[in-house]
Write a structure and sequence with these properties.
Layout (H helix, E strand, L loop, with lengths): L2 E4 L19 H14 L1 H12 L10 H11 L1 H19 L6 E4 L5 E8 L2 E5 L8 H14 L3 E6 L9 H10 L3 E4 L2 H10 L9 E3 L4 H10 L4 E2 L7 E6 L5 H12 L6 E6 L2 H14 L6 H11 L1 E4 L3 H11 L3 E5 L3 H4 L8 E4 L5 H6 L25 E8 L2 H17 L3 H8 L8
Parallel strand pairs: 1-11, 4-5, 4-7, 5-6, 7-8, 9-10, 9-12, 10-11, 12-13
Antiparallel strand pairs: 2-3, 3-14
């Protein structure tokens, strides 16, 4: 049963701490990465058979397999995938930025150019559930950014096939290549390249502990988006809500993973108890009952705050991945949100909207990193370069100060590189 606390009884920073012991996977991941770096495709075939139970004859997904998948998922679902892709593109298009140029009176020209990352690898989980939504959330902003090559890796089933929904989403999103490989070995393949899988410049997408650790270990060889933790939601709700609805929103997170965390912050003890009772009623109704049960019992919490502003203070300290403000006037409280990944306003904006098709990205900062992190965006798929142009007159105006600055730091070669330009004979 979920635990109920009064605000202040438990430090806010502990409300999203998971009770499960974290297994150190780093040594195993290091071994896998070295294996792939050394043995390439041979290692991928061997590790895929070992970890996924699939004996493959080729790693890439063919166009025929994608055609088959499109037929299997049905027109209704294809329509939903296309709607999601449209909404995601519409939202992320507003994030596209261009460079800038500024000119000073002395003729100096300064600026910044924004260019897409050339190649990106998208990891799409396919374990206890398939996540075509993750593919759309990663691929659509990458395409908008102008990335030239998008490669997707995802684990196959024991039959050697990729989930049809993932393949359908890949075609709709415009992925260039799809490979049947998952886990740390897929990350290693993207980072180092093999005969079949080309090396990329950046790896994005969520995964299990092995995937997260692999991304951490290859960082520097390639760029990565983030090291994501288990999913989490914090709901600020008053007693004008239906306890059944709030409990359902909490369970929407709890069913993700036994490590997922759902927290309710309310100003009503009676409402807290009503939600607790609803959780007990609804958990047995879920197909993923065991997962939700462990998540709620181990990590779920209800906090009773003095008032809703006190609840907002609690939310800002926790800095949740998902924040629901389930009140009648949510925009009143929006200015007070300082730390949150994605915010859902009002009683009719369940977090599930963000997971699938509202438009904002669902790849978000977790475990308190919303205090300094941001959702995945078009910015994650571009890089910025700055440029400087000085005329002889412009350089002459700053020459003495520039040389003094360099000499004060003991870098006389720097100063010399400036001064030599003003010597009569600089041959």
């Amino acid at each position: 049963m979920i635990r109920i606390f009064n605000y202040g009884e438990v430090p806010n920073a502990e409300l999203f701490i998971r009770s499960q012991r974290i297994v150190d996977v780093a040594p195993a991941v290091t071994e896998i990465i070295r294996d792939v770096e050394k043995n390439g495709d041979e290692a991928l075939y061997r590790l895929t058979e070992k970890f996924d139970g699939a004996k493959l004859s080729r790693l890439d997904v063919t166009e025929a397999e994608i055609d088959e998948a499109m037929a299997q998922v049905g027109e209704d679902y294809l329509a939903v995938l296309r709607l999601a892709a449209k909404n995601i593109e519409e939202y992320h298009r507003h994030q596209i930025r261009s460079g800038f140029v500024m000119t000073r009176e002395n003729g100096a020209v300064l600026g910044q150019i924004v260019t897409p990352i050339d190649s990106v690898g998208l990891y799409v989980p396919n374990g206890t559930a398939a996540y075509p939504s993750s593919l759309l959330m990663n691929c659509v902003p990458a395409k908008l950014a102008g990335c030239r090559r998008l490669v997707t890796v995802t684990p196959p089933g024991k039959d050697g096939k990729v989930d049809p929904a993932i393949l359908a989403a890949a075609r709709i999103a415009g992925v260039d290549c799809i490979y049947k490989v998952g886990g740390a070995q897929a990350v290693a393949a993207l980072a180092y390249g093999t005969a079949s899988i080309p090396k990329v410049d950046k790896i994005v997408g969520p995964g299990n502990a092995y995937v997260a650790e692999a991304k951490k270990q290859v960082f520097g060889k390639v760029a990565i988006d983030t090291i994501a933790g288990p999913s989490e939601v914090l709901i600020v709700a008053d007693d004008t809500n239906d306890p059944k609805v709030v409990a359902a929103d909490m369970l929407a997170q709890a069913e993700h993973d036994v490590m997922a965390t759902a927290v309710l912050v309310t100003d009503s003890k009676a409402f807290a108890q009503a939600v607790s009772a609803e959780l007990e009623r609804q958990i047995p109704l879920l197909p993923r009952t065991d997962i939700a049960r462990e998540s709620i019992d181990s990590n779920g919490k209800i906090v009773i705050a003095a008032d809703l502003m006190n609840a907002m203070d609690c939310a800002n300290e926790i800095a949740p991945e998902h924040l629901e403000i389930a009140v009648d006037d949510p925009f009143r409280y929006l200015p007070f949100v300082k730390n949150a990944g994605s915010i859902f306003l009002g009683k009719h904006s369940p977090e599930a909207l963000g997971d699938y098709l509202a438009g904002p990205n669902h790849t978000l900062p977790t475990t308190g990193t919303a205090k300094f992190g941001s959702p995945l965006s078009v910015d994650d798929f571009v890089k910025k370069s700055q440029y400087t142009y000085y005329t002889p007159q412009a350089l002459a105006e700053v020459k003495d100060g520039l040389m003094l600055f360099a000499e004060k730091e003991g870098l006389h070669g720097h100063a010399r590189s400036v001064g030599v330009r003003f010597e009569e004979d600089n041959s």
